[in-house]
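[audit] Reproducing an earlier prediction to check determinism. Same input, same settings, fresh worker. If the tokens differ from the archived copy the diff job will pick it up downstream; this log only records the rerun itself.
[audit] input (122 residues):
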Amino acid sequence: QAQLVESGGGLVQAGGSLRLSCAASGGTFSSYNIGWFRQAPGKEREFVAAISGAMFTSYADSVKGRFTISRDNAKNTVYLQMDSLKPDDTAVYYCAATTRKFLRIEHNYDNWGQGTQVTVSS
């Protein structure tokens, strides 16, 4: 099973950028589909973006055109480049791994990281 560790969160002004990293250990990384989810205070966790082992990507409508997900299998790492950040993007961001399909569905993921806080000030 994969163990996941997120990093790269922090405080940024609206319009700024951050790059989150999700480093994996255990299992065969290239076979995992990786998703990013986020949870804002008082809200349910929601899908942000995902990338399959075959490099297919999927984005939530709210981040499409602003966020880019990518992976480096040689480094066992998935990245989430976040540009044009808005205060509504403030949340704890989690990465998760699965071998299942339907990557927008939270319950399809088996392994989760501990999360990293992203705060966007107005």
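[audit] rerun output stored. Observation attached for the diff report: The chain has a mean pLDDT of 96.
[audit] end
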